[in-house]
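R.M. (postdoc): so does anyone remember the format we settled on? I'll just put the structure tokens first.
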């Protein structure tokens, strides 16, 4: 770092995004992107808006908000769109946490939570997942801290029931509970229906995964009107035009083309089950994933070795060095053809190591 870098960030360890290598063409199963292109309607609307880039985007995202509110069954004052779901998560840390109001989240979860906490000077605790990698629901009840839970969790893919989510929200009435639903569309139940029952619930989501818009950067938060008003205060104090014209238009198209979205999610879920069974035949142990990825380990080959060997063969998966999960790899669910290529490569690697 330079001699000008602020001391308040001197110990900050930034989030490490998944590899985006350019040296060769890989089968990318490392960043949980959709294997399918965006909806044709989303692309059509975005192309139309590309001819108006001399004009600022609507800071209120009014057309997108109207469409989304109808889709999710909330009022227009109960939803806020952001530049990816990372931005709404950061807004939540900024709006509802500080030195006197700490945060809590699982010890194995989305890696940006501790980064946002450090960035914003927020004290935080990490509650260990149980031995089976389930979130310890009872440990999050009545914690008297702002709670962040990814559901389904990442990188495990394990989902909590809506009853468990409600138990956590209900038991922390004086603290915000954030339910990060980046992967909810692949097999879990959304908590959005609970926002009218609990004024301390913020549900966040993204168009990156299930709606094939990772490159567009569109996220959102849904909560009661007063929480959205708080978050808007942060937004308008940082970046009012945070969603560009093309992304906004693409988001409308993606919401209108629900059949395309539903079919893709169903296809990914079916492919996940197929690939999971094939990996189990090869001796892998898997967590019960409700996301668009598989979390797997083998007693025959350690996680890092498998990651490196697959990379040599042109297939990228995600490896984590954290002690408790270092033997696991997170594998994005691609197309049937991509998963077959993965299975074949793993078979080759096993034979090479015998």
């Amino acid at each position: 770092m330079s001699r000008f870098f602020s001391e308040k960030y001197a110990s900050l360890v930034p989030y490490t995004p998944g590899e985006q290598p350019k040296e060769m063409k890989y089968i990318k199963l490392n960043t949980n992107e959709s294997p399918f292109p965006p909806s044709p309607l989303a692309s059509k609307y975005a192309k139309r808006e590309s001819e108006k880039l001399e004009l600022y985007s609507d800071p209120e995202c009014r057309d997108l908000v109207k469409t989304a509110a109808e889709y999710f069954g909330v009022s227009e004052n109960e939803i806020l769109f952001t530049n990816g779901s990372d931005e709404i998560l950061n807004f939540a840390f900024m709006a509802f946490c500080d030195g006197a109001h700490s945060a809590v989240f699982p010890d194995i979860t989305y890696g940006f939570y501790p980064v946002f906490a450090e960035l914003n000077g927020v004290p935080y605790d990490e509650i260990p997942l149980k031995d089976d990698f389930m979130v310890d629901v009872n440990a999050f009840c009545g914690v008297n801290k702002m709670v962040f839970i990814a559901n389904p969790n990442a990188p495990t893919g394990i989902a909590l029931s809506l009853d468990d989510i409600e138990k956590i929200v209900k038991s922390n009435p004086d603290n915000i509970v954030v339910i990060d639903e980046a992967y909810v569309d692949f097999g879990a139940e959304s908590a959005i229906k609970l926002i009218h029952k609990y004024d301390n619930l913020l549900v966040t989501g993204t168009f990156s995964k299930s709606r094939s818009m990772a490159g567009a950067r569109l996220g959102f938060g849904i909560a009661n009107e007063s929480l959205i008003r708080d978050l808007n205060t942060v937004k308008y104090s940082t970046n009012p035009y945070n969603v560009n014209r093309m992304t906004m238009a693409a988001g409308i198209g993606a919401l209108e083309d629900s059949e395309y979205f539903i079919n893709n999610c169903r296809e990914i879920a079916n492919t996940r089950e197929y690939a999971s069974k094939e990996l189990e035949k090869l001796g892998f142990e898997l967590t019960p994933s409700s996301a668009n990825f598989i979390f797997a380990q083998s007693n025959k080959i350690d996680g890092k070795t498998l990651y490196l060997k697959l990379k040599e063969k042109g297939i990228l998966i995600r490896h984590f060095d954290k002690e408790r999960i270092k033997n696991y790899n997170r594998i994005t669910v691609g197309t049937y053809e991509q998963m077959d290529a993965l299975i074949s490569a793993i078979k080759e690697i096993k034979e090479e190591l015998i």
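R.M.: ...and that's the designed sequence above, right after the tokens. Also worth knowing: The chain has two domains: 18-36+259-353, 40-256. DSSP finds ten helices and 13 strands in the chain.
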